[in-house]
Amino acid sequence: MASEARFLVLTDLHLAGILKRDEIKSPSIPKIENPSRIAATGELLSSIADYLRGRHFTLEAVIFAGDAQDKGSKGSHDAAYQSIVDAFQEFGIDAAKIVSTPGNHDVLKGSPPGSEERYADFASVWRDKGCIVPWIDGLDPQKPSDTVRHRLVADDAQWAIYPLNTSNWSQVRANVPKDLATVWDELPKKMAQGNGILEEQVKAALGRLLDYDMANISNDQLKVFRQTVDDTPQPTAGSQVRLAVMHHHLRSPSFRVEYKPFEGITNLEQLRSVLKETNVAAAIHGHKHEHNFRYEYVQSTDPDSPHRIAVVSAGTLQDGADHDAALLLTLKGLPYTPEISVERIDLPRTALDLTVSEPVSLTLVGLRNVEGAPVIVQGSNLDELYARAVQKAKSHIGETLIVHYDPSDTRKGSLKLPSQYPRSNGVTDEEMQNWLEDLVQWWQLERSSRDNDFPYPHGSRLRLFGGKLNQIDRIVRLLEKEPSSRALAVLVDPLRDFDRNGEDEAFPSFTMMQVRKRETLRHKFSIDVIGFYRAQEFSQWWPVNMAELRLLQSELADHLKANLGTITTVTTDARFKPQGPGQVAVPVFDRWVDQSPEKLFMLALTLSGDTRGEPFQEVLLREWVRSLNDIKEASSAADIDGLLIPAEGLKTLLTYLSMIDRQGEKSPLVQHLRSLVMANQTYQQSRKLAAHREAWSGSIATIVPSIIALTPVNRNG
Predict the structure, then answer these.
(1) Is 698 helix (H, G, I), strand (E, B) or coil?
(2) What are phi and psi of 699, to 5 degrees?
(3) Position 312 confidence tier, pLDDT thresholds 50, 70, 90
(4) What's the pLDDT score for residue 454?
(5) Three-class DSSP category at 469
(6) Global confidence as pTM
(7) Which of 219, 241, 260, 519 is the most buried (most CB within 10 A)?
(8) How far is CA 110 from CA 9, 117, 320, in A?
(9) Which run of H or E residues covers position 159?
(10) What are the residues facing 242 on neighbouring strands?
(11) Which domains does the chain have, with CATH numbers?
């Protein structure tokens, strides 16, 4: 099985007259003259053969994209065919390995579409000698029993080439308008008034008004094209690489404009759709006498995976120019990683080596998404990336979703919340940002008061894994020496977190972090982090996850004296559940136990009625009320997986308040707060079945509003 296949692409040879390579202003000088186009073509092909021979290259086929003739010049088809065979017969090139399609100069001007006289010159050479030619209107049966002559297929079927005829309406003469039909033929005689020369001139001018050079592909040909593709043998390994050859262009290869009627293929969108549905990987054309090599995208039902066609526009021999006379086209990476490579060949000068450009390649691997394949979102603007990630999570729930953030601003600092992140009523942007930073810092605490009853915090697992290993320090020591693929940290301990039956297990969604030290400039490095999540909610959790990864990334970059790089999240279970912030947030009073225990005491003073009008007391009360509302909203959410039930902070607050409040245990606020602690504790110790959750949610719905009503800010109006 060959991994490569090489082809020579020729087009628009126009083998009539002289090729004006040089500007000869003194034609009287003897033996100084430009070559004929036939001679120049022969020299070009001979030089290409020498080039191939010298490098021990093989040649699978020669592709000719039309216009051997120049305005119907006789003998040009035979000259083109014979030049190809003479130059490359030692490479095994015969009629069966030449693919040819007619151009607009190869048809008889004024002949009816689909007529024998239209294709007489083309068919007498390329078709009759046994070359691979397109199905031709009027010459071939509408339902051919055998389509072999319309395709060239590799011995192992790894590639196949299909010519198409776009010239059936080229050089066609339109019908005379009905309102002029009765006088049209008489106009030259009447206008010339006996002047025979003028009469012929008028007749020719009127004829030009009816002449159109239109590119169009008939419905019959498109049907046969599909049949030909369907009849093609398939390879035993990999996908078949299909090439279509036509004379006219799918898109103009440059900004140069040709102002004329029917400048392009009239039924282009139909053709593009046929190429898409037949999975054509590349289209080769001539006509414009210009080189270009690029992708063309055809829309499909899946907007994320349009069909991609590599388009090869071939140049040719032109007056006053040596460049882009021919192309070498190579298919590489067969059968599983196909790509198409193009080398541009210049017209040679005597005694000089043939100039062949460095190859330029495009991959031919399809863009179509395999069902269930990972969905990838990437970008450099966090607001835009968040919006797109949320959109993908909505439409790909339960699937693998990879989000890659390559920030345009690599300055160190915490990530900002996306502008579209859900916010509680009355909360300022500054308060939300402070909340985010406090939250991710709590998740990264080495020890927490909730470690015993809430097995999700990440800090102890990263910095005190198994009670002794600081994985962050280990990563730093590894990367201080050199980049290492072993720079990873795990947050799941099978001995601690797993049981034999997989029941009643509780461990973080954040399961692993990979760190990459990447050299960006000489002796300059960036730190990339990749977070892996067994499940990830995107409406509210993903920005928190990203902020936590940025915190870890910044810590590592500081230790390693490196820049901040990219952040990537990978989850195998994308979720979208726009629940209340309480399900994302660690309740503020539980965080205060670990981060600011003095705030709990000040909150108890404030709740007991010791309101001194201090600004910080107003802030404490706002956070208290907001957290209570978050708990109430989260308790009624459809899914409360991973929800941190308020416990230690409420217990500490209850202890302070029962001692400070003048009514002690008789205080209504103390009693309701104790009921809340007991309800949370009962649910926390349950198996958290639906009945348990329903009972807890009902208790929260009753208790929390009562506590809020007794809060000083509400009592005072």
Answers:
(1) helix
(2) -65, -45
(3) very high
(4) 64
(5) strand
(6) 0.73
(7) 241
(8) 29, 10, 31
(9) strand 159-163
(10) 160
(11) 5-171+213-363 (3.60.21.10), 375-575 (3.30.572.10), 581-715 (no CATH)
